Each structure stands twice: as C-alpha cells, then as structure tokens.
Amino acid sequence: MTSSICFNITTIAYMTSMVVFFAFLASRNKALGLAGSLIAYAGFAVQTLAIGLRWKESYDMGVGHAPLSNLYESVVFFTWTIILIYMFIDLKYKYKVVGAFVIPFAWGGMAWAQLWMPNGIEPLVPALQSDWLLYHVITCFLGYAAFAVACGISIMYLIKSKLTGGSATEPTGGLMALFPPIRVLDDLNYRAIMIGFPLLTLGIITGAAWANYAWGTYWSWDPKETWSLIVWFVYAAFLHARFTRGWVGERAAWLSVIGFESTIFCYLGVNLLLSGLHSYGSSNSQNKPSILIVASLIIGANLALYALHKFGSKSSTGAKGEDPGK
Questions:
Q1: If 0-12 CB within 10 Å is exposed, 13-18 middle and 19+ buried, where does residue 117 land?
Q2: 316: Cα separation from own chain's centroid
Q3: pLDDT at 311 (0 to 100)
Q4: Beta-carbon neighbour count of residue 322 at 10 Å?
Q5: Considering the entire predicted model, what is its pTM?
Q6: What was the pLDDT predicted at 317?
Q7: Which 3-state string (H, E, C) describes the chain?
Q8: Rounded to an integer, what is the distance from CA 3 to the centroid of its chain?
Q9: Which residues in 49-86 are b (16+ Cβ under 10 Å) and which e?
C-alpha cells in the first residue's frame, strides 16, 4: 500500500464523517454523532500511516526528508493537525456537534490536495535543508489548526446566538439543543485560541531562527513574515480585548473568524499570490486558480454569516416588539 492510496482513503473517510455529521444535525440521532467521530478518528489513523509511508518513500527514492516541504505536503499536514486538535476537544468536552463545523475544514483541505495539487516527492531546496524545518512547520500548523477549530466553534456561536436571540435560556428541543450552551461555546473559542497563540508564537520564533540559519538574518519583512506578524497581532488583540476589555460573545466570535481568515491568507494567499523567500511553498503556477476557490468560499461564508446576523437582528427585534396579549 502506498501513501497516495492511504491519502485517498483519508479523503473519503473525512467526507463520510462530514456527511454523517450533517445527518446528525438533521436527525439529532446521537448514534450518528458518535459514528461521525469514529469515522474521523479512523481517517486520522489512516492519514498518520500515510504520512509515515510518504516519509519512508522519500528515503527509498534517495531524497530523505520529512513530508513537509511543498504545498501538497503542508496542506495534508494541516488537515492532520486540524483533526488532532478536534480529537482533543471532542474527547475532553464530548460535544459531537462540533465535528459538523470542523471536519469540513479537514475534508476540504484533503480534497483540494488530492484533486488539484501535484503530489510528487522532490529534493529539498538548500533553504529547507535544516532541522528547523520540523520545528517551525509543526508549531505553526498546530497553531493554525487550533485557530481553525476556534473558527468553527465561533461560527456555531454566531448561529446559536442569532437563532436563539442571545437568550441565556437553553432550548430544550430542536437543532439548537444539540449545540453547547452559549457560554461554553465562548469558552471553547477562547481555549482553542489559547492553544494556538503560544504555538504560533513559537512558530514565528523558530522561523526567525531558521531564517538566520538559511539567509543570515532573523527578520527581512518577507511577505510571509509580515503576514505572520499580522496574524499574531490579530490574536494578540483578541486576548488583550478579552482580558482588559471583557470582550466575549459575538465580538470575540467575529474576531476569531477574522483571525482565521487572516491565517488562511498568510498560509495560502501569500504562497500562491505573492513572491518572496517563501515562494518554494507553492508547487507551481497551476495552483493559483485554486486560491480563487478558497477566496470564494471565504467570501461566501462571510456573506452567509452577515445574512444570518441581519436576519437574527430583525427576528429578535420583531420578537421584542410583539404584543404578548395577541
């Protein structure tokens, strides 16, 4: 069995898990929620095997490096870290519905990698021939994955907040009864970012050390470095606003969504659209149309959330204006 076959199985597993989670939302059948989690766990196990096989295949070809060197390998590893963080949240807090809002990120990444990206194993360029590659990439992507989970949880918060009018009283039936309480969602968003922020910080530090090793300077204001700093400031602002200004609820959720969009641009937009020292992260020019797909999905998600915000505001205003005696 090759790594390519295992990655295909992984993609199918995450797609199946996503569909099962959507069926769980529609039917509110707890068995489907459990099945969705188990399928995702199985996909994670196969993906772990696939990453190990690809690493071995690189040595068999005489290349011999960790599978973290190009866009295809980085997207695959990113999806692996998303499921890893999701498993931690799922096992600790046991809210199965979270999977419906996180697994699609992993499936989307795997589908994009398997269908549209070249997956050849290539020798490392000189700048990547360093142990700092492992330290930098692993810490950065674990941070990115935590932000992805936080984004999914924030979307859940915004949906529940609008459809329930922000009421502190938890619904006893319907779809919203599957969602964790509003305060729990807010706390999960915060906790996920508290996992991701130190990892991103460590990733920037290891990246600076790597840059000094490869190019003789710790910081050169390369587009990737600049956007990494922007992402860091967005999440630093989130934590600062929460600690000093008491930012919770919708404002915190929106900032989390904006932060993840900044993360996606830092990761994909910079690599595919801008030139710089990190241009080796993109495979070739044929991947550039793919970023338009990613951008379209991000814009579509924002429009959907904005529509939900406007609809929810009108609904809650209408509910408050009703005469209870009618």
A1: buried
A2: 31
A3: 54
A4: 8
A5: 0.87
A6: 47
A7: CCHHHHHHHHHHHHHHHHHHHHHHHHHCCHHHHHHHHHHHHHHHHHHHHHHHHHHHHHHHCCCCCCCCCCHHHHHHHHHHHHHHHHHHHHHHHCCHHHHHHHHHHHHHHHHHHHHHCCCCCCCCCHHHCCCHHHHHHHHHHHHHHHHHHHHHHHHHHHHHHHHCCCCCCCCCCCHHHHCCCHHHHHHHHHHHHHHHHHHHHHHHHHHHHHHHHHHCCCCCCCHHHHHHHHHHHHHHHHHHHHHHHCCCCHHHHHHHHHHHHHHHHHHHHHHHHCCCCCHHHCCCHHHHHHHHHHHHHHHHHHHHHHHHHHHHHHHHHHHHHCCCCC
A8: 23
A9: bbbebbbeebeeeeeebbbbbbbbbbbbbbbbbbbbbb
Q: In degrees, to the nearest 5, what angle opens at C-alpha 183 toward C-alphas 177 and 189? A: 105
> Which domains are assigned to the chain?
1-118 (1.20.120), 127-313 (no CATH)
Give residues with Cβ within 8 angstroms of 150, minimum separation 6.
188, 189, 192, 193, 196, 256, 259, 260
Per-10-residue mean pLDDT, the chain, length 326: 94 97 93 96 98 94 87 93 96 93 94 89 80 90 96 92 72 77 93 96 92 84 89 95 88 92 86 65 50 60 60 49 42
